[in-house]
Amino acid sequence: MESFLNRYRNITVLLLVIFAQLVLVAVQVKNDKDMRMIRVWTVTAITPVARIIEGVRGGGAGLLHNYVTLRNTDAENRLLRAEVDRYKLEHIFLKNELATADRAKALQIFQSHTPSKTLAATVFGIGTGSNSKVVFVDQGSVNGVQRGMAVVTPDGIVGKVKFAYPASSEVLLVTDPDFAAGVISQKNQVRGTLKGQGTPLCIVDYVPFEEKVESGEWFYTSGDDRIFPRGHPVGVVKSVRNGPQYKEITLEPSGMQRGVEDVLIIVEGVHMEIPDAPPASQPVYIAPPPPAPASALTAAPPPQTAGPATEADKLRVQYQAVGEAQKKVFGVGLPGSTPPDFTRLGQAPAPNPKPPEGAAPKQPPPPAPAAPPSGAPRRANQAAGVSTEPNPAGQAGSPPRK
Amino acid sequence: MSYPGGRILLSSQRESQISRFSPWIMVTVPLAAILFQVYVPLFFPFLAFLETPLLVVVYFALMRRSQVGGCLFGALVGIAQDSLSKNPLGMFGIVKTLVGYFASSIGMRMDVDNLALRILLTFFFYIFHQFLYWVMARALLAKTLAFDPQITLVMAILNAVVGVALFHFLDKLRESA
Asked: pTM higher than 0.80 for the full model?
């Protein structure tokens, strides 16, 4: 070291002297940003070194950290995968919940539109056996379910109650070989008997050769079996051919196309007409009409649907009042019978007497108290005004009309 | 005093002869050179071209033949010159430090008593001094000074001529070996 300094003593002194004077200059001089050059130079000289040191330190620390992170990544990855699996299950669950809500909505709409009194039920099990076509629903005899009641969905018939237990019921599906129901075709009013085969398709038996049934034609319940009210869709004809004794009509039941999970048990059946058009595959939700504009509400008088709208209507009401007061029925008297005394035309009571001043307007009857909610079917029952409690004796189902 | 054979380059450093000056000469001459540059141009502006401190530094560095002594001498003269100027301390100091160092380095290897060499060295160091100062002013002070090569060359010639005369005068102040 000493020899090194002796060898380069001159140049070392030169550099030291120049460096000292550079520092001296830097202490005095300021740059255009009013910062002394000594500070600028010092920062400029120190910063790269500091950056390099920090880079080395950060790189080393980052390498170590990344290594540790990589070690933890495996465990974190497993946790994330488990979390993703949990979210997938939750997603499936929510999708099922949404589908259940959609079915409940469809049942609710169907319940509100069908004249029959129905009871919503949920399938919670199926019967044992490979060829078993029975399911169990969560409504039983305590809820008013009786043996032989029809089970339907908005898409069509599903089956009938085979046994009604206190808290549940066993439903025989339309595809069961023991199932039978009276059906009628939509187009040509051909009557037959729907039978299950143990397969997804059913047959319509006892249709003579001379009857005309076309493929794609719809069959509806005829009401002849005293189980299914008339007018419920059964299914669409898939194939028609002549058999040894009757036509062999294969039919695809429509009530089970979207699965059997939520059903309606008809506790009081009401026959309906066979619709002219095939049923839609899914009930269409019709939104309530939009509210009338404020100007129309203020300008238009309140509607009087029961009152006469024209002078002719007023005269007709007055004549009817005279006839009712004299117990005369217009249009039924024979020639020569005594006509009503129309001289009392002006004395007839007003057909629509106005309520006295200050009288409270007539309010619609309050809705029936709803049962506490317990799932989608119960909500559907509430919407349809059907109680899940056992039916009173006075509300027995009306006999089907033939 | 010239070396035998009229050689300019010396065969070794041992061959070189170190000129010695009394301390008061080493102090008085630089101060006088600085005062000359500061005071005389007030009355004789045409003499402002003379860079007498530079000539003194070159002379003593050449004659002393010591690199450390040359750079320290140049640094002291330069800082003294800076102290009388508006420049930050160290600008002339750095320049004259390098001039003193290089001049002494040359003095160790050449016969600095040679007249032509003195003219040439003075001419060269003047240009080096002006150019280095211009560079440093731009680099350190961000000042854009005028550097006209033609004027600089003329000034260098004039300073070289005056420097030769000054060196001849200073040679009289050397102590005899």
From this structure: no
